[in-house]
Amino acid sequence: MQMCHFKLIINTLHIFLILHHMSLFFSSKKLNSNESLNLLGLQRLLEVSSELEEYTYESKMEVTPSTKTLVSACLNRIYECMYYDAARGEYLKAVEEFVTDKLKSPDLESKVRVTVALTSLLLGPLDVGNTILARDGMIEMILVMANSDDLLQQKVACECIIAGASKKDKVKTIIDQGVHILKKLYQSKDDSIRVRALVGLCKLGSSGGTDASIRPFAEGSTSKLAEACRKFLVSAKKDADIRRWAAEGLSYLTLDADVKEKLVEDKPAINALIELGKTGNRTCVYGVVTTLVNLVNAYDKKEAPAPELVRLAEFAKHHIPQEHELDDPDFVAKRVEVLGKAGVTTALVALSHTESAPCKELICRVFNALCNQEDLRGAVVAQGGAKALLPMALTTDPHENTENGRRHASQALARIGITIDPAVAYPGQRSAEVVRPLLNLLHLDYTALENFEALMALCNLAGLNETVRMRIVKEQGLQKIETYMYEDHVMLRRAATQVMTNLMLSPEF
Ligand SMILES: *[C@@H]1O[C@H](CO)[C@@H](O)[C@H](O)[C@H]1NC(C)=O
Ligand SMILES: *[C@@H]1O[C@H](CO)[C@@H](O)[C@H](O)[C@H]1NC(C)=O
Ligand SMILES: *[C@@H]1O[C@H](CO)[C@@H](O)[C@H](O)[C@H]1NC(C)=O
């Protein structure tokens, strides 16, 4: 693997193709430690990541808005391929060398470039990014840049603060030393600075997560921040970049159920969010999809602790997370309904082309939440949802979708198959292809609801025609289905028996 050809690259398309090839290469092959240690190549990649559209030289590499996202994904994938501690150590060494080397030079541009590269690391191999961020003087350097009068420095520093504010200790440092700087930047005349400062404040302000009892800023500040994000989002004049930052700001604030309710009642804002998603633009995937997941509560909830443990914790003055009353199921269902009716599926379909597996999982989660509601399933199919879900449910490549993502996609497909005629929901080849994801849900570790929904969908499919019945047999479905005929739960027994009955239509069977 040669990674040293970057000097030759002069146009964006090449960078794009090379990054794509590198991603494919790293996903298809386990590296032994010798092959991976092309430190020079890694540093070249960091060099690409530190490239800015604002700097123009003869020898400059051309970059597009997508380059950074791709380089981050690539850096992350290489890091994931470092299977040994020693290899990860080498990776970190290469990065540190790059940073030290750049910072030796007294000029400002090097500092800006280090900050930009650090942002790429924080959005890619987060552990590496955090290690660099924890170096003495690093956060301070970034805050000095944010506090300067130079727009470019303010911009890159804000982006780095946003990316870096993920771990508790860093958040605390930034809150202690940086909040007043961000507040000052939010008064900037330049909208691109204002929106970034705003997102920084949103992320810091929501560092308590869904826990309604932790709010680092004063009472009411969250709704003020949300209102500010909304303004940026709906304002038609604002360019795509500003709107995508606004969506990212909302992705942090919508952990708060008050913000969720307010946003969902705000038609122009919801439409703007969906329109943004429909562009399918790489840069907006995270913000849009995370906001949607929050709105429909499709994240994993922690089990509520047992009451006696709560009392014990109260006694010991430990912190107890609190669930917000607006996160009750009926409120969530209403929010899902609003989004479904506003045509969110079209946005999800456009966004499902993302290269990021974690983002795909989020998309599958939202799809599954939509399909949980029977009356929305028809719209999901009509807007291309079933077609988009199928590849996400079928893939076994962890770089294509996560295991949880596959599970959510499969359950969404099952739910569709229960309500909608399979000939309509899965026309042509798809009626046979959907069999495997459904059979995958017949897993003893999965919930009885997942099992049941899969059996119901299989029952409808088995009634469709001989092609599908033979596919169920070929995918070793019989054994799995038969197991459920001996289940304790009567509904599962009944559903499994119904599938078997429909399979009886096959002479072969
Ligand atoms: C890696 O390189 C070292 C020295 O260059 C060599 O001794 C070792 O056998 C190589 N390891 C593999 C797995 O190729
Ligand atoms: C994607 O978004 C970026 C800004 O985030 C923008 O510059 C670019 O033009 C957008 N691309 C498309 C195809 O809309
Ligand atoms: C079974 O149904 C699917 C989807 O409607 C169709 O593509 C396939 O040709 C059908 N097979 C037979 C044998 O009719």
Automatic annotation (TrEMBL):
GO terms for cellular component: cytoplasm. GO terms for molecular function: Hsp90 protein binding. Residues 60-204 form the UNC-45/Cro1/She4 central domain. SUPFAM superfamilies: ARM repeat. It holds the Pfam family UNC45-central. Residues 1-28 form the signal peptide. It is found in: Cytoplasm. Keywords: Cytoplasm, Signal. InterPro entries: ARM-like, ARM-type_fold, UCS_central_dom. This is UNC-45/Cro1/She4 central domain-containing protein. It comes from Ladona fulva.
